[in-house]
Amino acid sequence: MTRWPWLGRIRVRLLVVNLFVVLVPVAGLELAKTYERQLLEALERDMRDQAVVARRFVEASLRRGGTLDDPAHEEALRRSARRTRTRIRLLDTNGRVVVDSHRDGPPEGPEPRPPWLASASPSPQALAPWPEVVSRSEVRDALRGRPSGFTRLRDRNPGVLLFVTEPIQPRGAVVGVVYAVRSTSPVLVELHRIRSGLLWVLGGAVLFTLLVTLALAWSISRPLEHLS
Hints:
single chain, alpha+beta, Beta-Lactamase, five-stranded antiparallel sheet, elongated
């Protein structure tokens, strides 16, 4: 039992190395997934806040005798989109677009492409044709008086879009819908930064494993040389 005490130490070393190699990538992936969920939730909350502000602005205008398709509404939403990159449309009770902050194209300029490390190709099953605006679940919910949201994919940049709806109810009855949409590009940029860091950590883990493996091989070969 005491002839080769170094065997027990080698088993412990191998166990530590294997645990390190396995746990570092797993922990990194879980961190990235958790952070992605938090970023998407924060983006949706921000969009919801913008939709609520737009809804209250329009409701106040309607109470003063304005109309849903007032040009002032579109101009205000267009100015807002220059800073927020959120497209906001106003729909009537038939689901028809009467105001669009992006009617003449995105006032904030074209959407930048996400970094290659953060981009992902959606599966063909996820790229189902989008329904007409009036038939979308989030729009139907809002026309029934319930705020809603949905995420959709497409095969061109930006590939992932978040949709948020708020019912317009100046005097209780629903007279329209605030329909906000924004790409997830800000989230993809942050994920690119996180994944770049994880690649460095993974590279360090591989280098550490290589050095420890060489050290273990040396520690095993020395006693064997003495035995021979």
